[in-house]
Amino acid sequence: MIRSRNKITRKCQDTPKTQKVENYKNALTHNIFKVISEASEELQLESYVIGGFVRDYILNRGEPKDIDIVAVGSGIELAKKVAGKLPHKPKVQIFKTYGTAMLRAFDMEIEFVGARRESYQKDSRKPLVEDGTLADDQNRRDFTINALALGLNDKNYGDLLDPFNGLKDLNAKIIRTPLDPDITYSDDPLRMLRAIRFATQLNFKIEKDSLEAISRNKNRIKIISKERITDELHKIMLADKPSKGFSLLHKTGLLQIIMPELTALEGIDEIEGQRHKDNFWHTLEVVDNISKNTNDLWLRWAALLHDIGKAPTKKFHKKIGWTFHGHEFVGAKMVYKLFKRLRLPLNEKMKYVQKLVLMSSRPIAIVDNDVTDSAVRRLIFDAGEDIEDLMTLCEADITTKNPKRFKKYHNNFKLVRSKMKEVEERDHVRNFQPPVSGEEIMETFNINPSREIGIIKETIKEAILEGEIPNEHKAARELMLKKGKELGLRAN
């Protein structure tokens, strides 16, 4: 079945006519718009800047990085004309299949597209495209706030064309689809994630009918590629308060489809009066906490996944209550499976997230068992260059609402940090390199590469970490000679 969006209407309302609302000439002071305007007049085309540029200008969200231009006619020809008028004659990338072209100018990406109407097939989000009017093009937009357009021709330069009251929705901080939300989301299910992403980034509210339509159409997300899904998840994760997005993903049922490992953490079980905290909502608090201190996407991912091993390891014991033994180890293994399924990178970024998930309880364990030099040395050794990120994660993991306990935990981590600084200055174990190399061991005992070399190096490393010898060559060499003798080796 093919549905034409040109014939779709919003509920209880005819498709609104394009109307001039207000003049926004001040939005178009950049020289690029004058060039586009001149090119449009020469080609006798109507042209408009539409979507994110207009929205973000009205919201005062800073300098644009991307500009979308709609031409009633050939967007490709307009792009070529504009490129020819610019001093540096930028290269025009042409995408004939979609009738679009893109060029880079003034540190911005400018995309040109011919106005079009779209029809959709049930098993694909890729539309069948026909040439159309500006109204057709605005009808196909995902949200009212992204359907706002500014005229670029002499006759309407700077005029705001707002057929769906997008300006009103911007002022009311509402995400709403221009047409029937069930059809909008079913046609292109990625728009469900975009709605949640915009609500999170802009701190807007998704209009009731639109939010309910996401829940009704949630299973349509299965036709979207994993790469597209994770791109939206990244943008939600990098928002000021990611929990808003993940709460909406959960409320609409999308999260259960995309990341069931997270939703499995929800709920509080009680047996014999003993309860555990809801690890799902705790996790979202941790992500918000860490987002106040870092914009590192992968550190935020580590915060999101730090407890995913708790669902499969949860057990109740009459004597000690609820336990999650080994959840860090199980969670680290789950990270790989989740990254693979979502087409996230299976490289150093994945290994970094795995490492932080695996070590996420280590600093807490040190506090609980008193802060010994040996434990701190091992923590620094195992975490290496990621020790600061690990501590940031652990501090974000404190979500208790009890002021005394909150202060106690943070004071304990201050103690760990202080001890780390003291130990590192003295013992230099971060990115540890053995004071005695394998080559020196072979030369000293006149032996070839062998198992004994590994034993000696491990003995030296353990002695340094335990504080039995300083991290110095002289002490390490003496231990090397002693251990070599025990292994039956004879020094030269």
Describe this structure in words.
- With 492 residues, this protein is α+β, with helices and mostly antiparallel strands.
- Among the domains are: 2-173, Beta Polymerase, domain 2, CATH 3.30.460; 438-486, no CATH class.
- It is built from 24 helices and 17 strands.
- The strands form 5 sheets. It has an 8-stranded mixed sheet with strand order 2-11-10-3-4-7-6-5. A 3-stranded antiparallel sheet has the order 1-8-9.
- Helix 1 crosses helix 3 (75-85).
SSE order and pairing:
Blueprint: E1 2-4, E2 20-23, H1 31-43, E3 46-50, H2 52-59, E4 66-72, H3 75-85, E5 93-95, E6 100-105, E7 108-114, E8 116-121, E9 128-131, H4 134-139, E10 149-151, E11 159-161, H5 166-172, E12 174-175, H6 181-187, H7 190-202, E13 205-206, H8 208-216, H9 226-237, H10 242-252, H11 254-258, H12 260-263, E14 270-271, E15 274-275, H13 279-291, H14 297-305, H15 310-313, E16 315-317, E17 321-323, H16 327-341, H17 348-359, H18 362-368, H19 373-383, H20 387-396, H21 403-427, H22 438-445, H23 451-465, H24 473-486
Parallel strand pairs: 4-7, 12-13
Antiparallel strand pairs: 1-8, 2-11, 3-4, 3-10, 5-6, 6-7, 8-9, 10-11, 14-15, 16-17
Helix pairs in contact: 1-3, 7-9, 7-10, 10-13, 13-14, 13-20, 14-17, 16-17, 18-21, 19-21, 23-24
- Mean pLDDT across the residues is 89
Topology, number of strands = 17
Portion in strands: 5-15%
Q: Please summarize the sheet with the most strands.
A: 8 strands, mixed
The CATH architecture of the domain at 2-173 would be: 2-Layer Sandwich
Spans with pLDDT under 50 lasting ≥5 residues?
4-18
Helix count?
24
**Helical coverage, percent range:** 40-55%
Measure the end-to-end span: 85 Å
Structural class: alpha+beta
Major beta sheet, strand line-up: 2-11-10-3-4-7-6-5
CATH level 4 superfamily of the domain at 2-173: Beta Polymerase, domain 2
State the name of the first-level CATH class of the domain at 2-173: Alpha Beta
> What's the CATH topology label of the domain at 2-173?
Beta Polymerase, domain 2
Radius of gyration: 30 Å
Shape, principal axes of CA atoms: elongated
